[in-house]
Amino acid sequence: MSNGRILSVQSHVAFGYVGGKAAVFPLQCLGYDVDVVNTVNFSNHSGYGRFGGSKADAAELSRIFSLMEQNELLRSERLLTGYIPSGEALAAVKEMATKLRKANPELIYLLDPVLGDSGQLYVAPDVIPVYRSMLPLATIITPNWFEVEVLTDVKIVNIATLRQALKVLHEQHNVPNVVMSSIPLKPWLKAVLPSRSWTPAEEASSDDDFLMCISSSRDGGVTSVVHAGRVPLIPGYFSGVGDLFSAMVVAHYNPTSPSILSDTKPLDTVSGETALSRAVSAALTKTHAMLKLTNDYAQALPEDQRLPTDDEADEKETNRRVRRMKGRELRLIQGQDIIRGVQAVTERKMELWHGFWAA
Amino acid sequence: MSNGRILSVQSHVAFGYVGGKAAVFPLQCLGYDVDVVNTVNFSNHSGYGRFGGSKADAAELSRIFSLMEQNELLRSERLLTGYIPSGEALAAVKEMATKLRKANPELIYLLDPVLGDSGQLYVAPDVIPVYRSMLPLATIITPNWFEVEVLTDVKIVNIATLRQALKVLHEQHNVPNVVMSSIPLKPWLKAVLPSRSWTPAEEASSDDDFLMCISSSRDGGVTSVVHAGRVPLIPGYFSGVGDLFSAMVVAHYNPTSPSILSDTKPLDTVSGETALSRAVSAALTKTHAMLKLTNDYAQALPEDQRLPTDDEADEKETNRRVRRMKGRELRLIQGQDIIRGVQAVTERKMELWHGFWAA
């Protein structure tokens, strides 16, 4: 069991599962030697309200990368970057990624441009231009809906603007593989999605019942091949889900898989899959199963540990919020057989979106 | 699969497997939720010659522990502490361990007093008195031969001084469980060891062929029950082995195991085992199998990656040493099924040492 090396650069928390704590163990379970550079060392994630520790500044990150380089240890075949606290620190990561890419054109770099969610930035705005300048280094990016809008300056409100945003990423920023996750299933999107395999119950569902994921691969420079997938929405706030998802995408991305026909034709016309859509199907399957396991556990907790979000009540008793967060930490340890693929779970499959680019 | 929580406080390196990198993944594989506090964040271990990064000072460690405490997150059932860079930082760990112990008398605390090896200290001497003062907090300690001598001020040269050192740890420092590892099989030791199950080849072996491990358990306050085990020595320097071993001991220590008769009688007279000797047998078995896997891999590397230790040649070409170190990093990822116990390996069993305390 050996899948080579991956360098993971993201946050570390002592308690709970976000950033590296959500990504590293699953990657190790899948046979990757993971080199782990921590961008912050915190007690727990910020959703708890009370948190702290230290941040690695640009100088510290550069020093660690430089020592690894001098020691001939900066030679992983894959790179995964997530939350980076500042534009300066991000620039240090960019410098390292540029070197890795130059030394190895086959490097598989999954860049998760962690900016925010649902209209809210949760990083310093100075990281945005640095992320934009890093996009051409990436093999795959995994922005959520909001992050796509920030990176492309395109507000996505219909199929035309969705196409436009993908075009900006593929053509202007030279990203070969884009995965947009956590997309609310708005009526306009539902109307254009390929729906041949939807059940009648799904057909009748409202836009609150599903989250969509869209992948677009144009390895080789041809017009991109687009896939879409959906997972049932599990209400409430869970942390680290995106970090786990990105780790699973980079872990399962295998561009040299024999049934992927050639570099210039990303689509396997028999299976209807691309290397990207396969990886995303595996990532959706495992991430959603883990989320369901976590939600089932959270629902079964005593009432005081699953109190609903209520800012006023939280204000009065700080640890009300803490207990809610604690009960919703990902059950990665208990669900490790899901990650390993030895426990059967419901498969979530990305479907080819025929005619996505047709006017 | 759920074994509860363990708080691990030790070093972190980006590349390779020492400290937390050697302990956390194996603990997670065995079903533990691991809370991970990093005492240093380094590029790689110091054996590479070139290394660096940042150290958490006492204030940073105290702040993280305090935030965890306020957030009701400092409630693990087990605690594992390893390399701590300074006396001040260690004092911060002591304060936290004291609180955990006070809040939970059943806490299982494995304290690995990382001081040095083979007559050489590799920490600041100011940690020694702090470690001594922490010994009464521990459930289990895992010093090597040299560390026992430093902690007890007893030079171990015969069975009488071996008894005396154990007495100091049990009676003066109130440690219920002591595991002494990496003991060279000197002639005087071989002469007194219980040897009923030694093969003729083992009988004829020299003192360079085996490393001994001695465990001594006096749960409940009775005279301690002593066990001894041996593993074939694998020549050459491997890092992180002690960190993996300690993690495996704390993971497999189960004082409430039904066949351990009672708290005041640590010895199961049917099996000849104590809760401690069982844990140490499992830890020896898995650690030695992992070391063998690593050594087999290292031996099969191209010649330039397995050059012998040669300080002069290393001096001339720094990365000669680096390449040797890199080829000897533990194969934890490739050997994860050994940790999980699903891959059959040679069992290493601790044997009851009848009459150890007899004059």
TrEMBL record, chains A, B:
A GO molecular-function annotation: ATP binding
Keywords associated with the record: ATP-binding, Kinase, Nucleotide-binding, Transferase
Stretches the record annotates as Disordered: 301-322
Pfam families: Phos_pyr_kin
Domain Pyridoxamine kinase/Phosphomethylpyrimidine kinase: 81-181
Source superkingdom: Eukaryota
Entry EC no(s): 2.7.1.35
Gene3D superfamilies reported in the protein's UniProt record: 3.40.1190.20
GO biological process: pyridoxal 5'-phosphate salvage
Entry-linked InterPro entries: PM/HMP-P_kinase-1, PyrdxlKinase, Ribokinase-like
Keyword Phosphoprotein among record annotations: no
Oxidoreductase listed as a keyword: no
GO CC annotation: cytosol
Name listed for the protein in its UniProt record: pyridoxal kinase
Organism from which the protein derives: Cristinia sonorae
Lineage, opening ranks: Eukaryota, Fungi, Dikarya, Basidiomycota, Agaricomycotina
